[in-house]
Amino acid sequence: MRLVTFKTAQQTTYAGLVRDERVLPLNYPTLLELLQDLAGLEKARQLGESSEQGLALRDITLLSPIPHPPTIRDFYAFEQHVAAARAKRGLEMIPEWYEFPTFYFTNTSEIYGHKQPVPYPTGSQELDIELEIACVIGRAGKDIPVEAAAEYIAGYTIMNDWSARDFQRRDMKLNLGPGKGKDFATSLGPWLVTPDELAARRTGSGADERYDMTMLARVDGQEISRGNFKQIHYSFPQLIAYASRNVRLSVGDIIGSGTVGTGCLLEIGIDIHPWFQRSEIIELEIEGIGVLRNTIV
After folding, report:
1. The whole model's pTM is what?
2. 224 within 8 A of 217, measured Cβ to Cβ
3. Cα–Cα nearest to 31, from 217, 248, 192, 161
4. Per-residue pLDDT averaged across 138-149, rounded?
5. pLDDT tens, position by position, 227-260
6. Contact 163, 264 (CB under 8 A)
7. How many Å apart are CA 84 and CA 79, to the nearest integer?
8. What architecture is the 72-295 domain classified under in CATH?
9. Beta strand 111-112 pairing with 186-193
10. How do residues 41-100 score in pLDDT, each as one tens digit?
11. For residue 190, is the peptide bond before it cis, meaning its omega torsion is within 30 degrees of 0?
12. Helix (H), strand (E), coil (C) string for 261-273
């Protein structure tokens, strides 16, 4: 299933099920409430088997699938990105990176959906993107065994971890994380795709669950990045197991993969494309999910 949170012309929000080019409204204000209802996904499946016509996609506004996530943990799980970005700064790979997956918490208040304009961060001169895939937690749990962690995934979506690199460089000198370099915008969407929809692309199972899904980024229609989800070093079950150690994950929590190899200007270099500017249109596409599009304003 492809599940969304959307807003009508009357400014009312609903969870919905996408079928072809139409959305069937569900009796929940957002997708978070649907997932919190143990019967919510089954109700959505039953609606998908009905003959209801729903609303045309062109007549609604898509929000982030989870407009107000309880938390967002963004990991650093693609080896190519980590190694290449460090090499650009004349640094070798971090040996500890291979010992455990690491993450940072980002801001849950500045969340943008598909086609929503993203404000340029005031004071920055080096705006970047990060092409990522994210999962949404569908069951609460603590100390989740890695062998069972895939069962906690409600679905996958596209994530753009917008980054002000000049802010980030300053923040990181103080060794407390990216700070203002990251907290001004995160885009998620266009919808949540349930794992069963992606089964044919699965290349592993259990703790090693991965998917063969091309990931690419375009600016104003020009491709600048291409990678694949299957290249991830740490699987999502591994990320979930680590994130839940000593901590309860909640329904609706977002787990980001980190940037796929070549998925940002910091890695590929501004000779490929200058730092992003106002009015540019950024498209992130992941095979099997769709396209997340935002204009910088």
Report:
1. 0.97
2. yes
3. 192
4. 98
5. 999 999 999 999 999 999 999 999 999 999 999 9
6. yes
7. 8
8. Alpha-Beta Complex (3.90)
9. parallel
10. 999 999 888 877 899 999 999 999 999 999 999 999 999 999 998 888 888 999 999 999
11. yes
12. CCCCHHHHCCCCC
Calpha distance 178→172 (Å, rounded)? 6
Instruction: To the nearest 10°, report the CA torsion of 243, 249, 253, 258.
Output: 10
Cα 211 versus chain centre, distance? 15
Q: Residue 151, Cα to own-chain centre: how many angstroms?
A: 18
Q: What is the dihedral of CA 33, 288, 196, 57, to 10 degrees?
A: 40
Shortest CA distance to 192 belongs to which of 28, 5, 37? Answer: 5
Reading the block at residue 173, the tokens are 């000198």
For CA atoms 82, 84, 88, 92, the dihedral sign is positive
SS3 sequence of the chain: CEEEEEECCCCCEEEEEEECCEEEEECCCCHHHHHHCCCHHHHHHHHHCCCCCCEEHHHCEECCCCCCCCCEEEECCCHHHHHHHHHHCCCCCCHHHHCCCCEEECCCCCEECCCCCECCCCCCCCEECCEEEEEEECCCEECCCCCCHHHHEEEEEEEEECEEHHHHHHHHCCCCCCHHHCCCCEEEEEEEECHHHHHHHECCCHHHCCECCEEEEEECCEEEEEEEHHHCCCCHHHHHHHHCCCCEECCCCEEECCCCCCCCHHHHCCCCCCCECCCCEEEEEECCCEEEEEEEC
Show me where the domains of the chain are located.
Answer: 2-62, 72-295
